[in-house]
């Protein structure tokens, strides 16, 4: 088999996996539209998608994970964009701001899927807790990007604030990351509440620039002291 044949076969395998993965997501959300998340089993999702329970877990580590592919994909994309943007150096606040503003275009483009995910999340305490864990992963990624240590981002599912101690981003980066995540969250909540209508990019920019004003003032003051 030559290289072109190998490349073609690999592309087909990747495409097949993506189709199966999407079938599982579609099957899950089809069930979630009529029943509460907690009442739907993995077996039912797999059967509806026409695959085995084992196949489900080949694509998703938990039932909760099937609700969150867009969120986890965007976190991985954030890491990739920061690495490409900075070339390995510590990210500046301006770097993070630019990447986040680019992200809003993706959120808007996928607003239907995100809106549906959000509605399912709001029905389950378990999912809300899982969403909080993803938010903490975002804070980790931002803080470590600001420190130039993004490759140290934790990969485990259940991340907590205590895990900051294991990866030790600087205190200033942790505070900025928490502030950035906290100030963007209301902008997204407002967007979701309005059925994903309105100018999300403008709202996100305004939210980030409120924090940026404070960060710039802090950095200027620190430079004077040092």
Question: What does this entry look like structurally?
Answer:
The protein is mostly helical and 226 residues long. The protein folds into 2 domains: 3-63, Arc Repressor Mutant, subunit A; 68-225. It has 10 helices and no strands. The chain has helices at 3-32, 42-49, 53-59, 69-86, 93-109, 111-121, 125-146, 164-167, 171-193, 200-225. Helix 4 packs antiparallel against helix 5, helix 7 (125-146) crosses helix 9 (171-193) and helix 9 (171-193) packs antiparallel against helix 10. 23% of the residues are buried.
Largest sheet: none
Mean pLDDT: 81
Secondary structure category: mainly alpha
Shape summary = elongated
What does the radius of gyration come to? 20 Å
Order of helices and strands: HHHHHHHHHH
Extract low-pLDDT stretches: 2-12
- DSSP summary, beta strand count: 0
Quickly count the domains: 2
Topology, element by element:
Elements: H1 3-32, H2 42-49, H3 53-59, H4 69-86, H5 93-109, H6 111-121, H7 125-146, H8 164-167, H9 171-193, H10 200-225
Helix pairs in contact: 1-2, 4-5, 4-7, 5-10, 7-9, 9-10
Which keywords apply here?
226 residues; mainly alpha; Arc Repressor Mutant, subunit A; 10 helices; 0% strand; disordered N terminus
Would you kindly provide a brief summary of this structure?
The protein has 10 helices and no strands. The protein has 226 residues and is an all-alpha fold.
């Amino acid at each position: 088999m030559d290289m072109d044949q190998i490349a073609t076969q690999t592309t087909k395998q990747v495409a097949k996996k993506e189709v199966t993965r999407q079938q599982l997501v579609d099957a899950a959300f089809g069930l979630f539209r009529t029943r509460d998340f907690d009442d739907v089993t993995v077996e039912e999702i797999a059967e509806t998608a026409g695959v085995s329970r084992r196949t489900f877990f080949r694509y998703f580590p938990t039932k909760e994970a099937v609700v969150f592919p867009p969120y986890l994909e965007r976190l991985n994309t954030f890491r990739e964009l920061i690495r490409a943007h900075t070339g390995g150096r510590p990210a500046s606040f301006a770097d993070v701001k630019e990447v986040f503003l680019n992200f809003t275009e993706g959120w808007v483009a996928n607003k239907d899927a995100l809106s549906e995910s959000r509605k399912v999340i709001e029905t389950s305490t378990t999912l809300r807790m899982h969403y909080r864990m993803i938010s903490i992963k975002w804070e980790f990624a931002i803080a470590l990007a600001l420190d130039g240590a993004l490759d140290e981002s934790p990969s485990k599912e259940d991340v907590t604030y205590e895990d900051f101690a294991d990866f030790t981003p600087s205190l200033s980066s942790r505070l900025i990351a928490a502030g950035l995540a906290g100030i963007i969250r209301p902008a997204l909540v407002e967007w979701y509440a309005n059925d994903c209508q309105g100018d999300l990019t403008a709202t996100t920019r305004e939210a980030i620039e409120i924090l940026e004003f404070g960060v710039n003032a802090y950095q200027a003051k620190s430079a004077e002291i040092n």
